[in-house]
Please model this.
Amino acid sequence: MIMKKLITIIEEKMQKAFAEAGYEEKFGRVSVSNRPDLCEYQSNGALMAAKQYKCKPIDIATKVTEVLKNDEAFINVDAVMPGFINFSLNQKFLSDYLMEMAGASKFGCLDLGEGKTIVIDYGGPNVAKPLHVGHLRPAIIGESIKRIKKYAGYNVIGDVHLGDWGLQMGLIIASMKELYPDMPFFAPDYNGEEVSEVPFTVSDLEVIYPNASKRSKEDEAFKEAAHEATKKLQEYDKGHYALWKKIIDISVNDLKQNYKKLDVDFELWNGESDAQPYIPDMVKMMKEGGFAVESQGALVVDVSKEDDKKEIPPCIITKSDGASLYSTTDLATLVEREEKYKPVQVIYVVDKRQEMHFTQVFRCARKTGIVRPETELTYIGFGTMNGPDGKPFKTRDGGVMRLENLIGDINDAVYNKMSKQEGMSDEERREIADIVGLAALKYGDLSNQAAKDYVFDVERFTEFEGNTGPYNLYMMVRITSILRKYKAASGATDEDIKSYVINPAGTDAEKKLQRTLSTMSDTIEAAAVENAPHKICQYIYSIADSFSSFYHDVNIMNEPDEAKKKGYIKLITLTHEILADCINLLGFKEPERM
Ligand code: ARG
Model:
């Protein structure tokens, strides 16, 4: 069941009050007060209405408050000079609202998507190259946005969009011709038959590619051979294609395991190669439609606009030798996505240094009608992950950090910070450190706006205090432990707790906790619409923080009033459930204990 947002309910009541007092509804706007010491909510509608009704704002405010005072949802309703309406919520109204949330699926969060499809393109690793820190951000941010959009009701298809075509593949194949000349793929009479054993592994691939890339810069003949191999692959020569498939299989297998460690998962393991069959028709369409023109031998589409502040160069469709490029592939991939999924939106989570590329591709796709006018194309350019020196993150000796080493470092840091606990084996401590480490890593990244550069600070990210992944998990684990104790002591089951009733808040801390919980739908909406996981981070932290003060103020287990105690138990159960859904949206999990 979808619930109205609390602020919407309040605003509707305010509008009704304006109408009953004889004014237009539209003036009944409400905002959360920025002076919580005076009131929780405020409306300055009377100030706006005064002009239209040619009277004093305070008179309007007074009339409206007369009506509002009859509504049991509100307390402390006041008209204040020069014409503000200040008021607070009846705590019973708030706790009833939370009870309704507790009983609703997804806590009553709105359904923005209604099953509409979104394609999200994130990951973008290149085959045969190990995952390194540069692949961390698209994976973490993309996965979170995907989960948020799903939660908001969309059907979301995540595509890893492998870099699996082009010269890099030719370089590898050309090297292999020298290294493994006896592979059946190179035999002149190879006819596409299945080859089960190949002499290379992922580790070989990881050595072959960088060597080949380096060599092609010094060795003309080799460079020529690599181009030749690329061309043969792109002409779907049987041997080249079958070898390429083997390379892809081995590489993808390894990538899958690596992404799994990050708890990142793709619906589609497509690559640039999958778009190739769409290119010929697309180019034909662009030519016939008069969109693509020749320029210095190349085929280009002008994508500049009159009001451009800086120059946007034409989008190159094919080079003078007829070869396609990065932009060609991205355009053809859009053709494919439109054809297969008819998405309402295609989102790209790619390094912000590729902004120009996406500006050109998007404009070209619109101009040439590859996407329907209503298809939204969104580029989320993320910033760089820097080291403590403010420069792009490197290993200690200045090399590119492999992802698995980085994950290892952060897990070690968590492991070392965990206090030795009785009855916890070293193995268990390691397992917990891995779960908490992933949370530290993801939260450290996602709590920043994606577009900003940020400093990857292992020490800070793994703190158990402050705005970190581990701190938030720690609060969850604490709730789990209280609930465990409560159930053991009282014999209550989960089913019993379901029937408990949250009471109107007694203390300020409890009030704050209840109010924060009540804004979940607003948070999910903002995060989904703005593609902003950091809003979920802020939300989680404010829940964890208000829970912490609440927990400090009351003594749940020793509360003598049974109804009160049950109310607390229900409240922290809801707190925990909401936190659990939220951390899942960020892509991490709660450990059993920590
Ligand atoms: N493989 C590309 C790179 O390494 C990233 C791909 C991003 N996605 C896309 N549709 N262009 O730069």
Observations:
- The pocket of arginine is lined by residues 121, 124, 126, 161, 163, 330, 348, 350 (CB under 6 Å).
- The chain has a mean pLDDT of 94.
